[in-house]
Automatic annotation (TrEMBL), chain A:
Entry superkingdom: Archaea
Entry's transmembrane regions: 12-36, 73-100
Annotated protein name in UniProt: Uncharacterized protein
Swiss-Prot/TrEMBL keywords: Membrane, Transmembrane, Transmembrane helix
Keyword Transmembrane: yes
Chain intervals for the UniProt region annotation (Disordered): 112-136
Automatic annotation (TrEMBL), chain B:
GO MF: electron transfer activity
Main location: membrane
Domain Cytochrome b561 bacterial/Ni-hydrogenase, residue spans: 9-204
Stretches the record annotates as Disordered: 319-347
Entry annotated with the keyword Membrane: yes
Location(s), subcellular: Cell membrane
Entries under InterPro entries matching the protein: Cyt_b561_bac/Ni-Hgenase, Di-haem_cyt_TM
Keywords, sorted A to Z: Cell membrane, Membrane, Transmembrane, Transmembrane helix
An individual GO BP term: respiratory electron transport chain
TM ranges: 12-35, 55-77, 137-157, 169-194, 244-264, 284-306
Any Gene Ontology CC annotation: plasma membrane
Pfam families: Ni_hydr_CYTB
Name used for this protein in its record: Cytochrome b561 bacterial/Ni-hydrogenase domain-containing protein
Amino acid sequence: MTNTEDLPEVNGYSRVSVLVSAVVGLVVAGLALFWAQGFRLGYESLYRVNPSVEGGGIGADWVFGNTIPALDFLIALIHAADVIMGAFILVMVFIHWAAFQRLAGQMRDPGEDVGEAVAADGGSPAPGEGQGGDSS
Amino acid sequence: MSNLDHGKFTRVTTLFHSLLGLDVFLLFFTGYAIMFNDELWWMLTLMGGASGVTAIHRITGIGLVALVVFWITLQVISSTGRSNFAKILPAKDDVDAFIQDIQFVLGRVDERHPSARQFAGYKADEVPLLSYIGKGVVFIFSIELTLLAISGLLIWSKTGLAAMFQTKAAAMAFVTFHGLLGVIMLMGVMFHIFEHGMHPAFYPVETKAFIPRSMVPEHHGDDDEEPDTTGIERLSLSPSWRTVSTVFGAMTVIGIVSVLIGSIFDEGYPVPREIAIGGGPSSILLTVGINLGMVVLGVGLVLSMYGNVLRIRWEQQLEQEREPTTAADGGEPQTDGGQPESDDTEN
């Protein structure tokens, strides 16, 4: 008997697939690292964009330096996406929050589980029995 | 008997989910500290300032590339992946489930649509692999992670950007794009944490994503007793659920709103579309709100770890339950914990 005989049939991923995928993932990540590091350090230091912890200033030349309208549009677009998606996500939070409240209303209140039904039968409360393991 | 605990994910999926979560949380904490450095100056300092935080961000970024490529490859080359893909495509049921959720909240219907349920409640076959929210999470996060990885690599490779656009402004535009894209993901992850942490039946964390379905027995009792309902009425509400879910829900909403306002207000650090004068916390409320959003993420990280602790406990429990069976076969249970036949072929 195997130790999983009593468990459901599972259509999992084969080991070969997992291994091949892991190798591909690592190789691509390595190549990405190699590419991202670049070959000319001069550019790296020239174009470095650091967080301006110690005051503003970085980006001040954006308005003057940008000669590509498409980039400006891209940023405006992503701003709009932020707002639209943010509003949508908030709606989803509120719907689920309210749904959870209703679901909670269908559940037994804390301490209620062993009280009414069992006592009405005249028997003593037997916690855990027939509760699906959630009677605590 | 209740059927609330059907596992749905394979072991590979649960492990991938945990690794991806850990990586993405690290990316958020570092990226968040950079983008909202005014409000999260302490995080930036804690992680070694500008150079330390960008170093961690890049290392975890490469980790993200590895994970994303691993997952895409696995879905393409394995039959399981290909068959699962069909199951997560959006369908009419998902629209119905969204509408029914609104009706459920308004009290027009008594139950959530099966495609909205995070748990089975019926036979496992009758419940989709993912709820409509789950499908949305998979698709939206997949697109965002891919775009974030590509734009992140472009920002990293200044030589690559320079070759394409020849201007410093272009590099900075990509930083802005990357940061603002991250904000969408950030808001989505906050909702994701709330959704899977505050469900009253699973509070404090839904274990579906941590305990693989191979470890979840599907039949607990009498086979003839197929439940008519989801079985939720048999469950007891945790005493702390109401308070914690209210507080955490408020924090989630405040966090999302603050990050959203911050992204508009900051115009996407570090490239203002108009010259920005000054710096520092622009508003106490915004600073508090964004920090609360960070706490929500922190709770998500803790819950993810807790889910893995539950899986380990569950594994130990299964081992203990099986040991007497092994002895009853006539053999002597000399091994402590080891299985006579370890069947690890399932992943």
